[in-house]
Design a protein that fits this description.
- The chain has 128 residues and is an alpha+beta fold.
- The chain has two domains: 69 residues, Alpha-Beta Plaits; 51 residues.
- It is 30% helix and 39% strand.
- It has four helices and six strands.
- A six-stranded antiparallel beta sheet has the order 2-3-1-4-6-5, sandwiched between helices.
- A hairpin with a 2-residue loop joins strand 2 and strand 3.
- Helix 3 crosses helix 4.
- The chain is elongated.
């Protein structure tokens, strides 16, 4: 099982009703395809991870910039097909290879797992 590359953009928003919906409408209006999302709150802020195809990153950043939404991080991530294998088996394979996972969430549809690591080479090798 090899992992395809995509991009995770982390944005910081206010922790209040409607912010994730506003974010989704904003990037969709510019034709950006949102492939996955994870959101967390803390200290009056919301931290939202957006999974995007690489070709949509510049458009999404421009849309976020127009609305003055802070981008905290942009990083390459692996998108792994976990169907038939399961998330636990994927994580065990990475652990056996000594790969530290910084971030993990499922993409829309639930059969793909988004993984961020500083050790992409070994992660891909462990999952192939």
């Amino acid at each position: 099982m090899s992992g395809a590359m995509a991009t995770d953009i982390t944005v910081v928003m206010r922790d209040q009703p409607g912010e994730i919906a506003r974010l989704g409408e904003l990037i969709a209006a510019d034709g950006v395809h949102l492939r996955g999302l994870a959101a967390f709150t803390g200290d009056t802020h919301g931290f939202v991870h957006l999974l995007l195809d690489d070709e949509d990153v510049a458009t999404a950043k421009a849309a976020l910039g127009r609305e003055k939404i802070k981008i905290a991080d942009t990083r390459d991530v692996l998108v792994v097909d976990a169907a038939g294998r399961g998330a636990v088996d994927v994580m065990l394979a990475l652990a056996d290879a000594g790969v530290n996972v910084d971030l993990a969430y499922s993409a829309f549809g639930g059969e793909k797992l988004v993984i961020a690591t500083d050790d992409v080479f070994n992660a891909r090798d462990a999952l192939s």
